[in-house]
Amino acid sequence: MSNVTGRAAARLAERIAPLMRRAHDTADDPVKSPRTAVVVGRLLATAFLVCFATGLYSHVLQHPASWLVLPTRPVELYRFTQGAHVISGIAAAPLLLAKLWSVFPNLFTWPPVRSLPHLLERVSIAVLVGAALVEVTIGLLNIVQWYPFPFSFRTTHLALAWVVIGGLSIHVGVKLPVIARHWRRRDEDRHGTSDAAGRVISRRGFVTAVGAAAASAVVLTAGQSVDALAPMNVFAPRRMGVGPQGLPVNRTAAQAGIAPAAVGPAWALEVHSSAGTRAFDLDALRRMPQTDVVLPIACVEGWSQSASWRGVRLIDLLATAGAEPGGPLVFTSVQAEGAFARTTMPPEYARDPLTLVALELNGSVLHLDHGYPARVIAPGRPGVMQTKWLRAIEVTA
């Protein structure tokens, strides 16, 4: 039986091997060299690491640990980190494609597996490539808020981020001798492995084109969060200054299912604490001392913009209600459904004098799409945590 199996395997190998070699020769190009893979790979690794670090910070802000004290300064910290997250994610898309193109002929090497370590290496690369492609794809879809997949974006995006970074670490460890040998041009020349011109483009031309593609993708989208690039924002779905009261909106009142009666004259903001429950209607909030602050709205999709807010300082409102923010605060929206209809705020934000229950935006009463009659605005927090259409605040012990 083993002889029959062996002969069958040998015949199959005889037929497949020429096909694999032909495919390898067709896909091969002098530009697709270790040097090219290293040059593009270090750019891609940088983008992945920036994306991972900033994404992890965003996750911590959205799911804060009770023991962790989060920074409220600088006020634009999250605007910077999340802008860097999306910018590096967008840049990673052409870099990832270029990296895969540069190593594509290796897919057709024969024999496909030479040893157990080689098998494990190929499996780890397959996991890394698959996870990276899915991670970048769903990240780009999240920017435009299109979710054609049946799984949770946030949960999957975080899990895949760990898989990508773990796979990248293993890959770099395995390929470290090759990376060291081709890290610098003079090292490559010393080993006699300098690339010739490619079939269509030289290696330098290819790397330049990849860099230009990544830079163009960034320049034509980063204007959604970088003021200086705002005039060049062609492809990002949000534009600075475009929206009600000159500020973009992610989720409108209609999309959130806000009924007019729920924010009508009968509306009141309830504050629940150990001291009891106090209700403040809109007139009562307006009679309280008002504070003006300039704070950004920075959303996980990457867009951000600073705006002028006016309202009651949260610490003053809590003091009037006889509440002390010794623990996390829970904000409940009029919005009945949605992942952030209820949000939690660590006490350090509640104590910050810039944190407001905002009633006005850019000099006029809040537009309904911006959270009328009242919303939260705090320094350094994701936009999804800046609860709109406030209904209640619960102060925990």
UniProtKB/TrEMBL annotation:
<dbReference type="InterPro" id="IPR036374">
    <property type="entry name" value="OxRdtase_Mopterin-bd_sf"/>
</dbReference>
<dbReference type="InterPro" id="IPR000572">
    <property type="entry name" value="OxRdtase_Mopterin-bd_dom"/>
</dbReference>
<keyword id="KW-0812">Transmembrane</keyword>
<keyword id="KW-1133">Transmembrane helix</keyword>
<keyword id="KW-0472">Membrane</keyword>
<feature type="transmembrane region" description="Helical">
    <location>
        <begin position="125"/>
        <end position="147"/>
    </location>
</feature>
<protein>
    <submittedName>
        <fullName>Molybdopterin-dependent oxidoreductase</fullName>
    </submittedName>
</protein>
<dbReference type="InterPro" id="IPR019546">
    <property type="entry name" value="TAT_signal_bac_arc"/>
</dbReference>
<feature type="transmembrane region" description="Helical">
    <location>
        <begin position="39"/>
        <end position="60"/>
    </location>
</feature>
<feature type="domain" description="Oxidoreductase molybdopterin-binding">
    <location>
        <begin position="266"/>
        <end position="396"/>
    </location>
</feature>
<dbReference type="InterPro" id="IPR008335">
    <property type="entry name" value="Mopterin_OxRdtase_euk"/>
</dbReference>
<feature type="transmembrane region" description="Helical">
    <location>
        <begin position="80"/>
        <end position="104"/>
    </location>
</feature>
<dbReference type="Pfam" id="PF00174">
    <property type="entry name" value="Oxidored_molyb"/>
</dbReference>
<feature type="transmembrane region" description="Helical">
    <location>
        <begin position="159"/>
        <end position="180"/>
    </location>
</feature>
